Amino acid sequence: MEAHIAQALSEAGVDLADAYPKPLTQEVVGAADVVITMGCGDVCPVMPGRRYLDWPVADIDEAPIAVVRDIRDAIDAHITELLTQLAP
Hints:
88 residues, mainly alpha, two-stranded parallel ribbon
């Protein structure tokens, strides 16, 4: 399953050499203007004054590579849309 994630990201030109999961802590949230979660629900920290977006995605565990690619592409579309909204 992790191999599918790495493969799908590599196909999109993403370099995973320095990638690691970043915890969603109060400090991280406090430094952000926009907080994006992916199905986090009520377990994620919430700080007033921050913009929150939840991008629900399918469960990637045990997903075949085609599904992982679809999830990657959906996240990319969300990012592209957000960048358009944030542009001056």
